[in-house]
């Protein structure tokens, strides 16, 4: 449970440990300690600022989980911090450790790959059913003409199918298929025959029930061990929101698997969060509490590790749409909390609130991107034309 603290929020900056140093830093982002605006920090524990200044991302996230500070709009707080690059001016011990571990070890090895399935995706389908759209699409929606989360997710799924040029009878492989949102949509709307790879038993069980009667099959397998001899060929391959779990030491194996599984005239759509620079490690708090062993790729990392097997036909960035998607998930999570709290404690609620809003802030600040990349084995003769988006 989060701490129930009664320390007065009316304390002046000079009365708070580390208050003056923190306020000098926060002035660069127009954030006030105990201010009146939605993005201002409200301090509830006398050591909160000292903990944040000393521990960086871990200190910020864990102290919120412990109830040491409040903020009405954490998403805007994080966005302002990142736009002002304050994260580069405070302690970053967790980030350096994460980068060192990523350099020395394969954190996404076959043996470790199943951790994220157990730690995140198997939390409980009740949580995700409350938070997500009816298709259970746990990735960025496409909001160009959408007004609701349901519309944005259907638009994203349709956009992926149109970019792939799906037609009835085509065989589609979905690498990291989640609850099967793309496969169900592709089978229902485009007549595709689908195979999906997952490392989450809960996702496979739920997805198989929802896809009953459709030409959709879930396979519980790590991508590296799938189709080792290349005998199985698919007309199209998609991977939506899974590449973030692959890791730089495995990118070549990932693209090699996609290439051996794709027909010579096929297309591969990769949908992934990306970062602006080629640095190892991810946010230490996210790695510890949300996505164990996660890693965000850069443009350079994708380009250099895919070039042996693929030609890049199209690269589409709609990162700001993830801000809106995450805030829609947050609104649904909050609305559902009265019935979810029977299964999750208050500290989990604060962790999840921080996760969703913090991530929204990273996309609002343009620190993170969302890419859809279309690749072909040898280049499309006459060129590839992206459908109208």
Automatic annotation (TrEMBL):
Q: Where does the source fall among the domains of life?
A: Bacteria
Q: Which key words tag this protein in UniProt? A: Lipid metabolism, Methyltransferase, S-adenosyl-L-methionine, Transferase
List each coiled-coil range. Answer: none
Keyword S-adenosyl-L-methionine present in the record's keywords: the answer is yes
**What are the recorded GO MF terms, alphabetically?**
methyltransferase activity
Q: Where is the active site?
A: 359
The family database entries (Gene3D superfamilies) matched by this protein are listed as: Vaccinia Virus protein VP39
List the InterPro entries. CFA/CMAS, CMAS, SAM-dependent_MTases_sf
A single Gene Ontology biological process assigned to it is: lipid biosynthetic process
Q: Does the keyword Methyltransferase apply?
A: yes
Give the UniProt family note: Belongs to the CFA/CMAS family.
Protein name, as recorded? Cyclopropane-fatty-acyl-phospholipid synthase
What organism is listed for this UniProt entry? Candidatus Dactylopiibacterium carminicum
């Amino acid at each position: 449970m989060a701490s129930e603290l009664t320390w007065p929020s009316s304390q002046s900056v000079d009365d708070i440990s580390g208050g003056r140093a923190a306020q000098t830093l926060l002035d660069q982002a127009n954030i006030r300690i105990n201010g009146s605006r939605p993005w201002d920090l409200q301090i509830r524990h006398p050591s909160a600022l000292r903990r944040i200044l000393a521990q960086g991302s871990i200190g910020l996230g864990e102290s919120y989980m412990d109830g040491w500070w409040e903020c009405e709009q954490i998403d805007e707080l994080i966005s302002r911090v990142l736009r002002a690059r304050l994260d580069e001016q405070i302690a970053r011990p967790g980030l350096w450790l994460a980068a060192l571990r990523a350099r020395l070890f394969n954190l996404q090895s076959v043996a470790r790959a199943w951790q994220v399935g157990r730690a995140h995706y198997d939390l409980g389908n009740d949580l995700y059913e409350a938070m997500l759209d009816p298709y259970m699409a746990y990735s960025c929606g496409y909001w160009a003409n959408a007004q609701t989360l349901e519309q944005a997710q259907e638009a994203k799924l349709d956009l992926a199918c149109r970019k792939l040029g799906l037609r009835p009878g085509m065989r589609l492989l979905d690498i990291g298929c989640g609850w099967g949102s793309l496969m169900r949509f592709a089978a229902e709307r485009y007549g595709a025959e689908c195979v999906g790879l997952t490392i989450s038993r809960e996702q496979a069980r739920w997805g198989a029930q929802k896809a009953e009667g459709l030409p959709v099959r879930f396979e519980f397998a790590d991508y590296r061990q799938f189709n080792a001899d290349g005998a199985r060929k698919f007309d199209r391959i998609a991977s939506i929101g899974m590449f973030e779990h692959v890791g730089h030491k495995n990118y070549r194996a990932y693209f090699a698997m996609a290439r051996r599984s794709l027909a010579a005239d096929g297309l591969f759509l990769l949908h992934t969060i990306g970062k602006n620079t080629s640095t190892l490690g991810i946010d230490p708090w996210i790695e510890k509490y949300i996505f164990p062993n996660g890693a965000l790729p850069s443009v350079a990392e994708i380009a250099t590790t895919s070039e042996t097997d693929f030609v890049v036909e199209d690269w589409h960035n709609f990162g700001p749409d993830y801000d809106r998607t995450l805030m829609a998930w947050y609104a649904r999570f909050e609305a559902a909390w009265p019935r979810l709290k029977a299964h999750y404690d208050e500290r989990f609620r604060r962790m999840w609130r921080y996760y969703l809003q913090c991530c929204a802030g990273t996309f609002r600040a343009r620190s993170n991107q969302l890419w859809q990349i279309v690749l072909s084995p040898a280049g499309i003769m006459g060129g590839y034309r992206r459908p109208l988006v």
